[in-house]
Amino acid sequence: MVLPRHKLRGLSLLNVALIAVVLVVAVAAYLLFFRDESEAAGTTRPSVAVARGEVVASVSSSGTLQSSQSASPQFATSGTVTAVYVKVGQVVAKNAALARIDPAPAERQVRIAEQNQIAADNSVDAASESLDDAEQAAEDAEEASATPTTSPSTGETAGAGQGQTSSAGQSQDPAIAVTNAKASLARAKADKEQADQNLEAAQAAVAATTLRAPIASTITAVNGSVGSVAGSGSSGSSGSAGGGSGSGTASGATTSTSTSGFVDLADLKALQVVAAFPEADAIKIKAKQSATVTLNADPGTTLTATLVSVSPTPTTTNGVVSYSATFSLAKLPAGARIGQTANVAVQTAKAANALYVPSTAVVTSGTTHTVTLADGTSREVQVGVQGGSFTEIKSGLDEGEQVELLQGAVGATGAGQGRTGQFPAGQGGQLPGGFGQGGQGGGANRGR
């Protein structure tokens, strides 16, 4: 089959158009990839001068503001709540009355203990008199045995060791009588001591029917109400101060189910920061180290803090081990509240008047550290304090020498790919000592 001439002409034009499109795509691809690759090969890295100053290493974490003194006191004895004297937000003094339970059962125990104490006192008095009588009888017997007497009927002499004749006609050793009397007195005194302790406990139980604040603080929660059963066993307690727990409920009464104390309180004038650090960072921090704190609610304000303590026991969450650290604030910012998020940076090392370079200029392989000079040669250096942005150079470089930033290729705009870190403020975004053949501005050390 032979196509007409005008159709052949149309196919030829279509083929030419397709070939032209392919050529345009090929040229564009070449310019896009091969030219960029060629230009990239010719780019240079920015260089920076070795400078002198202070290098600081730190670790950071986030935590929350917490009160340095808090308590969740609970009634030490159980009973039905008859009064609640405080409300949330109220400021109370130490030992201020917070709430009260029915004191009638405890008062009844006091009256019983008082009667038992009186009876114990009487028992001691009686035992003491019996001992006096036994000791007197022993003395009389000893005197009688020491004086010989002659029996009128037999003429025999009675000497020592004959003993005494009791009213029942049986001889009783005076020494045994004294021993028995002493034992009776000892038992009576022990009973008296126990009765005294029982009375003190009963009186303490009456005092415990009024719940008091263990510290001067602010009420943060009231977990019970009038008519509920509170005290030992009705709810647990927690906090840096507070009461114990036990058991007991009353029939027909509403039972408190709070998992904390009857009242929660905290000193809002003494706040601290508590933050968790992963185990790799926790080994670098210790008490008395300096720290800085910023609050998410006020990121523009930097607070000075001191590390107070690091928990000796870890917490594991989703397989991650961390240790809790507590920081005291030098000054409490206005409007600070419990629970606010705080970011903490702990200074772990510092080198003053030291030579340093950006950390992105140092390549580490095992224990060997090297830098590349502006002329392309490598040099091994000894490093000291390694901060997030800068590394101390203890030997191997002189102040003013130019080193390259090696962490990623840098083009003419200075857009680096190094580790995250900002250069010292007040230099207009320039690297310390300026660039060599690099780009401009603070983006040079802002990595991904």
Automatic annotation (TrEMBL):
Question: Is Calcium a UniProt keyword of this protein?
Answer: no
Q: Where is the composition biased (Acidic residues)?
A: 130-143
Region: Disordered, residue numbers = 121-174, 230-256, 414-448
Ranges of Low complexity compositional bias?
Answer: 144-172
Ion transport in keyword set? no
Spell out the coiled coil positions from the record. 178-212
> What are the subcellular locations of this protein?
Cell envelope
Q: Where is the composition biased (Gly residues)?
A: 233-249, 426-448
Q: What keywords sit in the KW lines?
A: Coiled coil, Membrane, Transmembrane, Transmembrane helix
Q: What highest taxon heads this organism's lineage?
A: Bacteria
Gene Ontology cellular component list: cell envelope
Q: Where is the Multidrug resistance protein MdtA-like beta-barrel domain?
A: 272-347
Any Pfam family: Beta-barrel_RND
Annotated membrane-spanning segments are 12-33
Q: What is this protein called?
A: Macrolide-specific efflux system membrane fusion protein
